[in-house]
Write a structure and sequence with these properties.
The protein contains eight helices and nine strands. It is of the alpha+beta class and 201 residues long. A hairpin with a 3-residue loop joins β4 and β5. The chain has two domains: 65 residues, Winged helix-like DNA-binding domain superfamily/Winged helix DNA-binding domain (Arc Repressor Mutant, subunit A); 126 residues, no CATH class. α4 packs across α5. The chain has a four-stranded mixed sheet with strand order 6-7-9-8. A three-stranded antiparallel sheet has the order 1-3-2, with helices on one face. A two-stranded antiparallel ribbon has the order 4-5.
């Protein structure tokens, strides 16, 4: 066994179960070809799983449910952390994250300041769409997501129950963050949110 594979094999320990790994994690312990070969062999041995091109996972076994694969959101976040880029869910992904839709998207779309790309994870697709820094400058976790979610909706046709949920979510955001983020929102969404917040309880 070469030193590259020995190092990676030793890295894959029980306390690393569930971790997402990338070939670049092992840069410096061998050349690119050796790292790829070592990962390929470990996949064949069942010690790691290949999730997509250049993305691997150390198996995690739950006593009741068996092997638990990482969700697409976890994979997207791992990519963002690895590449030091910002991402934010948009459209149906944002609606689902906020509990404003029960629809589970088969395509998770994120805006990003990184490179645009598409990653296939089984039946699910992760899509990174390049955007302006302005759209990623929201300070509030909730308000930033809500603004992205509202871009997916016809603001004149939002049901009263969903509006109540949106208003409740906005009330949980830090007022200073909300004030900051409203300035970044498209005019129609800015006006909609202000109108919603000014409605009597």
């Amino acid at each position: 066994m070469g030193k590259t594979q020995t190092y990676i094999n030793n890295y894959i320990s029980e306390d690393k179960a569930g971790e997402i790994i990338f070939p670049s994690d092992f840069r410096g312990i061998g050349n690119e070809g050796a790292i790829k070969m070592a990962l390929h062999r470990l996949v064949k041995q069942g010690k790691i799983r290949r999730l997509a091109h250049g993305i691997y996972y150390i198996p995690k076994i739950d006593p009741l449910f068996g092997e638990v694969y990482p969700g697409a959101e976890k994979v997207a976040q791992a990519i963002a952390e690895k590449e030091k880029i910002r991402i934010r869910p948009t459209g149906v992904s944002a609606l689902n994250r906020l509990g404003l839709s029960t629809q589970v998207p088969m395509k998770l779309v994120y805006i990003t300041d990184g490179s645009p790309r598409q990653i296939k994870l089984g039946k699910t697709i992760i899509k990174f769409k390049a955007t302006t820094s302005k759209k990623l400058s929201a300070k509030g976790e909730l308000s930033g997501l809500i603004i992205q979610a509202l871009e997916e909706l016809d603001l004149d046709k939002i049901e009263p129950d969903r509006e109540r949920k949106i208003k409740d979510l906005l009330s949980k955001e830090d007022p200073e963050n909300l004030k900051h983020d409203l300035k970044l929102a498209p005019a129609r969404i800015h006006d909609y949110i202000l109108k919603l917040l000014n409605q009597p309880k």
